[in-house]
Amino acid sequence: AAKSKQGAAYRVYEAKMNLAVMQKVELESEAREALRENQFSLALQPQVAMKSGKVIGFEALLRWYHPTKGAISPADFIPLLENTTFMLELDYWVIARACSLIQELGHSGFPDIKVAINVSAGQFIDPSLPDYLQQQIERNEIAPEQVCLELTETVLVSDIKRARDIMQTIRNMGCMLAIDDFGTGYSSLSYLKSLPADYIKIDRSFVSNITNDTDDRNIVNSTVSMVRNMGMQVVAEGIETQAQYDLLCDFECDYGQGYMISKPIPEHQVWSVLNKYVEGGYWKLSKSTGTT
Ligand code: C2E
Ligand code: MG
Ligand code: MG
Ligand code: MG
Question: Which residue in 47, 55, 135, 234 has a CA-CA distance of 20 to 30 Å to 289?
Answer without folding.
Answer: 234
